[in-house]
Each structure stands twice: as C-alpha cells, then as structure tokens.
Amino acid sequence: MAFELSEEFVKKIPKTDIHVHLDGSLRLGTLIELAKAQDIELPSFTEAGLRETVFKDHYSDLGDYLRGFAYTTSVLQDAESLERVAYELALDNFEEGVRYVEIRFAPQLHVHSGLPMDQVLTAVNKGLARAKREINSRPSITCDVEPRFEYGVIVCALRMFQKNFSAYYRQLLGVHRYTPARSCYSLASLELARSAVNLRDSLGLPIVGFDLAGQEDGYPAIDHAEAYAYAHKHFLMRTVHAGEAYGPESIFQAITSLHADRVGHGYHLFSPHRIQFGDEEEKAHYAANLAQYIADRRITIEVCLTSNLQTMPELQRKELAYHNFRHMLSTKLSVSLCTDNRLVSNTTVTKEILKAVSHFNLKPRTLRHVVIYGFKRSFFPGSYIEKRNYVRQIIDYYEKVEALYRASSELHHGGSAAS
Q1: Which of 65, 200, 268, 311 could make a disulfide contact with 59, Cβ separation 3.0–4.6 Å?
Q2: Domain containing 360 — which CATH number?
C-alpha cells in the first residue's frame, strides 16, 4: 500500500520558501488595518470584498495579478508597518511547518525622505528576528526535538521603474526624466547592490541574496550586469526572475551574464517555440542544451505553480498538469516549490506541495528530494559548516516524521508502504 502524502503529513514535514515576496504576502486583515490607520483608500475594507475585487483566485492576466501590489506597497512606507508584516509573515510560515524562509522585496519602493535604505532593511529584519526569537524559544526547539526556524533576506532590483518608484529615489540617484531609461535602471540596481553589501557587512543584516524582478519582455537582464558583477565580487548570492514571461534566452542570460545561482520561475526553460532564432530543430537543441547545463550545475529553479497558473494565459487554458514542472522533474533538475505571493496567489507552501502531489503524481521519495533541495540550495546566512549541520538536522527530522506516518499507514492497511 502506497504511503499517502496527506495534508497533515505535508504540514508536519520541515519545508522552505525561498521565493516569497514580502509585499505580496500580507495578511488581509493587516492590510485593511494599516490602510485605515494611514487613510489609504482600498476597493473594499472587508476581507471578502478584497478577495472579490483584488486578491482573487483567478486573474485575467499579469496586469490584473499585479494590481494588488499598488495597495500593499502603499501601506508599507514606514518602519513600523514593514516590521509588522515581516513578523507576521515569519509566523505564518512557521505555523504551516516552514522552517527556513527567504523573504524578498524591493527596498527602493519603500525609500523616501523620511525612510532611508538602512531603516527599510533594518525594519524588515527586526520583524523577522523577533519572530525567530519567539519561535525558537519553544521547548520542542530548545530541546532539539524539532529543528529551529531560520531566515534570510533577498533584495530585489527592478528591471524597470514602477509608477510608484519614488521621485525622491530618482533624485537620490541623480537621474531625471531626460536620463535614458536603461541608464536609470542600471544605476538603481547598482546602488542597491552596493547598499545591500554595505548593510550586510556593517550592520550584520542577514541579506543573503540579490534578485532582479519586473517585466522581462523589453527589459533585458543584461542591463543590470554591473550590479550583479558587484554582488558576485562581494560574495552576495544571486537569483533572477527569468523564464516567467519570456523564453529560454532570458534564462541563459541570467545564468551566464548575471552569474545566477538560482532562477525564479524558469517556466519557459522548456518552451523552445519562444526562442527568437533558428528553425524548430535548432530551437529544440538549444533548449535541451540549456536544460542540461542547468541540471549539471544544480542551478535551482524556484517553482511557483499557482502564480504561473494565474499569470500565464497559455497555461490558464490548460490544467496544471501541463505546467513545465513535469519536464523539470523528468530531467532531474534541482527544484524547490515556493509560493511567490501568499496573499496575491491565495496560497501557502502546503498548498503548493499538495498541488504538485495531485497533479504530478509525486511519490514520497521525489517529494523528499524536492523539499530538501530547498534547504540545500538556500542562501543560508551562516558558514558552510553551520548550513551542513542545519540541513542534517532537517533531514533527520524529515525522516523521523516520514517514518511515523509510514508506520501509521502500515498499521491501518496491514501491509508495507512503498516509496
């Protein structure tokens, strides 16, 4: 009798979320409360109303999906609010068994004359650190019965300036409306890389990674090569949103020109028809070689099933089983299941795993590999030895949980449970 990967089991096992956006993962009640306190208008001031009008289960396109960020970022323009949502996000993760999380966001969307970069990042870290202290003071963790909770912060540069990219920050960079757009993007991302490294080294903030987010099409990653070279030179790990809305060339650019250690989404790695050159055979050959390159180097793909389903029209017309995650599994890529945005996608890590189990027929052994990849390929804010010890503790706890559920399954079904 096969071992059932139930919701109860998935919640119990230790998990990661290494691709989750702070401003896309607020509690709805907190968003409403902060908006009222700051006199910010929302389409509705009830959770049901916001679920109906903004944060829906289904979206018409990426633009519809992104609409909610205008509201979430608007209430995160002070240190207290940033600290609060970071604290709550850490607790929400732990409550469903997530033991390691990497919170990412674009600090430059929160910087203004009253809130400089160091205060933005310090506030987020303060909330995460408070949650970590509370969680790790629980007896089951202090007695080493369960693994502790850990976190890191990833800063996101933007491929393009958003409408709410503050005029103050433009002035700070010394750019104006006559400055060529790509020069603005490059300056902003380089300044962010320098600030991240400086704050990591001077204040000891657990800034573990550098990311590039925003619209892919028309805004190539190569424009940010200088920022990524700076991060690379100063030992700041790197991930890039790539292959979410553009083809394999975007992923190739991320891992070659930007030295990406991981790729966010990477959906179109297996979409040769999106390649811009060559005939069908040449495109297929290019995509296969790229996948092999990524597999060989264990460049991890941060997979966000629900988010992709909500933002990709071509996927919306099909079932989730058509997601290219199936190809990632068959080619043995290093993958980790992530939420992207807990609020905007109305999801959790548990939900993402259960969707993978049901739509891709994940077996216990495959699930164990996928979950452990999240820990192994994390940008853990400690030494290599500390990370190895932590991952070993995670694996031991995972195997203990699995053994208990396997024994229970055998007891109920009177037979051995297969892997």
Answers
A1: 65
A2: 3.20.20.140
